[in-house]
Amino acid sequence: MTTRIETDSLGNVPVPATAYWGAHTARALENFTISGIPVSRHPHLVRALAMIKNAAAQANCELGILNPREATAIREACQEIQDGHHHEQFCVDVIQGGAGTSTNMNANEVIANLALEKLGHRRGEYQHLHPIDHVNRCQSTNDTYPTAIKLALNFATAELNRELGKLAESARNKGAEFADVVKMGRTQLQDAVPMTLGQEFNAFAATLEEDRCRLMESTALMLECSLGATAIGTGITAEPGYQQLVLRALSEVSGVAVFPAADLIEATSDVGVFMHMSGMLKRTAIKLSKISSDLRLLSSGPQNGFGEIILPPRQAGSSIMPGKVNPVIPETMNQIAFAVAGADTTVTMAADNGQLQLNAFEPVIAHVLLQSISWLEQGSRVLRLYCMEGIEANTGRLARQAAASVGLATALIPAIGYAGAAAVAKEALQDGSAILDIVTSRNLMDRDAAQLLLESAVLPVRTADMSGV
User: Fold this and answer.
1) Distance of CA 82 to the CA centre of its chain
2) What is the DSSP string of 34-47?
3) Is Lyase included in the keywords of this UniProt record (predicted)?
4) 0.85 cut: is pTM over it?
5) What percentage of the chain has pLDDT greater than the value 70?
6) Which of 84, 219, 367, 401 has its CA 20 to 30 A from that of 39?
7) 318 catalytic residue (yes or no)
């Protein structure tokens, strides 16, 4: 392999001649052989880093720190990365020491070498345009890296929100389809009172819409930005006026209306916003897991379980039992939720151990949050396409269960009181008699009046339209 020799503060480093990254990245590749997951696995983070470097070059040009030719080359390189090119060059491991410095330097080196080529120079000829002196000018990993994480989380959460919206719409469609399918509701896995299958699916839609709102509220907290704070929030090496210019430029480049943090020292060390986002992701994950567990229960059997709904068969469920089909799609979502809940614990531990003026553990925070969002997005898509949209109601079984359920006795309470209804229910359970027959045989009610009450209990109750939530 042909190499070029680059030099950093520790000495000479051989770098592949074809690489756009440089010495610092080369050392990181040797030091951090941990997860095998490169930063490029999180394209939103790569794009966010390029946007920050783009905005910084614009601000530095306006301040006269970079000449227009240098700034243009840097910005063009950044734009290529923003457009999805060269992401494979962001190769450092997501798990790394140094509070994200290796990721920041990976970006600086790739952008510098792309810019050098645009200026007619070869990769590594940093005397013409340097990764730190030019691309990283007026910046520190302390402010660029957390800002990039916030931008990336904004982009990723927007995609998750759209997918959750599609899943909620699919559940609402099932609510409309099953609006007249009567069934028995359950509490503590025991028969409760009648409802419709449509109401059950409308409730799934409503809980998803609630979480969409909470997630978007969380992303609003990501708009507060420490860019311009440089090392530990002091603003050291940043030119006067830089912060205002770079934030304005970043808002333009990213389309995200960022604003400065009130206290840059606090903003540099505090990761509370990431804990908040993690908590919201866990909430969403657990909601999705609960829905998935309900679908597994409702489809259980198919002969000796609940058997109320039929999930689309996706693949054979056993290597030995013929005809067995498992609820593999809801099971997948359950496992995603387990991972997201574990990631929340990781974020909590990382936040707790960020001592003094900087949190050194933002790399693992960034990784697990972006992974959680990606998995939730993909899981929601799979749950919608391969499960929710194809669910069928087992109408015959549901009708038989509802007609025979002692839960109907609850409807008689206004006429015969709780004790009377309880006695009727107990007798029905003991000998299997119909509720209506027991009521009339005990002369508790006129048969027609009892019939009317029981019928009213199983009439579909319309649920408020949640489509505008």
Assistant:
1) 22
2) SSS-BGGG-HHHHH
3) yes
4) yes
5) 97
6) 219
7) yes
